[in-house]
Design goal:
Elements: E1 3-10, H1 13-43, H2 51-56, H3 58-64, H4 74-96, E2 114-117, E3 124-126, E4 136-139, E5 143-148, E6 156-165, E7 168-176, E8 189-194, E9 198-202, E10 207-209, H5 213-216, H6 218-229, H7 240-274, E11 277-281, H8 285-288, E12 295-296, E13 304-305, H9 309-322, H10 324-338, E14 341-345, E15 370-372, E16 379-381, H11 382-401
Parallel strand pairs: 8-11, 11-14
Antiparallel strand pairs: 1-5, 1-7, 2-6, 3-4, 4-5, 6-7, 8-9, 9-10, 12-13, 15-16
């Protein structure tokens, strides 16, 4: 298996300054390579510049600017150029597919937060001693940075990424050949229904509460954002007070994200420990949170009919704040490590189908929490009905596979 490990770095003041300079110089390299591609396309008869062409120039760039580019790892700079090449590959793929292209854009220093070292030992070396308070990672141009290694690293370290999140620094290790750690079998199967009122409901009728971390922090976040908005545009990012206000907003968002991930990890672990097979809906979160299309009014040219955009925006905020996608990804990874099975089923009409007689109608869903079949009169909690239908569809999928 392939797994990622994320550890907090504890750099000194000088090392933190060197890390910031490393990000800034890699950002400059990224923007320069992007500018070269743009100029070649616009002024050289639409000539395309490839990764190989730009990688071949690195030696000259490092010799020309040894203070900014020559001090960093050659392979990490190649990884930055590959990052740009990957963005252009995705751009041309969207163009050919007729989708909204989204041309690669220049990165600001505050938005370029990751430097990747493609191979352990090439510009970056990891000390693999487990639970050692002296564990360090050696970064070319920075030095030996102390690492808070809270768990042992298993498998073989392939790549190392240095990432900035707010004022903190992290080392992200990508490892392959990670052995599985199967848990004892329980002989139980469960279906889960994701929701907004409840984070999830199991087919056994258990509700996991939605913690609503974003709503809990709304007051502090609103105050911080209003204070940040008081700075005029001409002075933004130019004063110490503006930077402090921006850091305050970022700190609140970071805390919400950590709380959401912590809740997702704990909930997924509880499901994996208690069940051998877990079934869930195959959710398209991007489609569910898409803005409603405007409805032109045929009686009034240039006017539009009400499309409940404000109500949909509130629902979208609740769905995104719950973090369904992150939770299902974490659940899949934990299940793979524990030797469990996760099945994704078709989500259509799971909350409108009676688990007793199979009758499907939108009238069956009386309210958000109440389900009552119009054919057989079966009554139950609507979320549990959805989880039971997910479980039934997973059973059919297992029978078909067998």
């Amino acid at each position: 298996m392939i797994r990622a490990y994320k550890f907090l770095l504890r750099p000194t003041v000088r090392q933190a300054q060197a890390l910031r300079e490393m990000l800034a110089d890699h950002c400059s390299l990224y923007n320069g390579a992007l500018q070269e591609r743009r100029d070649a396309w616009q002024h050289s008869s639409k000539t395309s510049v490839r990764y190989g062409d730009q990688s071949a120039q690195l030696k000259e760039i490092r010799a020309f600017d040894p203070e900014r580019q020559g001090r960093w790892s050659f392979s990490s700079q190649q990884a930055t150029l590959r990052r740009l090449d990957k963005a252009f590959t995705a751009f041309f793929r969207r163009v050919k597919a007729g989708e909204k292209p989204g041309h690669p854009r220049f990165k600001g220093v505050g938005h370029f937060d990751t430097v990747i070292f493609p191979k352990d030992g090439d510009g970056c070396r990891w000390d693999s001693t487990p639970h050692d308070p002296q564990t360090r990672v050696r970064l070319q141009g920075v030095g030996h940075v102390r690492v808070h290694q809270h768990r042992p690293v298993k498998g073989r370290v392939k790549t190392i990424a240095v990432k900035r999140e707010g004022t903190r620094w992290y080392a992200v290790l990508s490892c392959d050949q990670v052995p599985a750690e199967p848990m004892p079998t329980t002989g139980t199967v469960v279906g889960i229904d994701m929701g907004v009122t409840h984070f999830l409901t199991t087919s056994g009728g258990k509700h996991v509460a939605n913690p609503r971390f974003l709503e809990a922090a709304t007051e502090h976040l609103t105050q911080a954002q209003r204070h940040l908005a008081t700075f005029p545009k001409r002075t933004r990012r130019r004063t110490k007070k503006h930077r402090a206000a921006a850091r305050r907003v970022a700190k609140i968002h970071t805390r919400i994200r950590r709380q959401r991930l912590d809740h997702a990890h704990k909930t997924a672990l509880a499901l994996v420990r208690d069940h051998d097979t877990i079934a869930h809906e195959r959710l398209n979160t991007a489609g569910m949170t898409r803005k409603p299309a405007p409805k032109p009014d045929p009686a009034r040219p240039g006017a539009f009919l009400p499309n409940q955009r404000a109500a949909k925006a509130g629902l979208n905020r609740s769905i995104l704040g719950t973090g369904w996608g992150a939770f299902l990804a974490i659940l899949s990874n934990k299940a793979e490590s524990a030797g469990r099975t996760v099945i994704a089923v078709d989500p259509r009409n799971t909350s409108r189908t009676c688990p007793s007689c199979g009758h499907t109608a939108k009238e069956n869903r009386v309210t958000q929490a109440e389900f009552q079949c119009t054919a057989c009169g079966h009554s139950a909690n609507a979320d549990r009905v959805g989880a039971l239908n997910v479980l039934n569809r997973a059973g059919l999928a297992l029978c078909d596979a067998a």
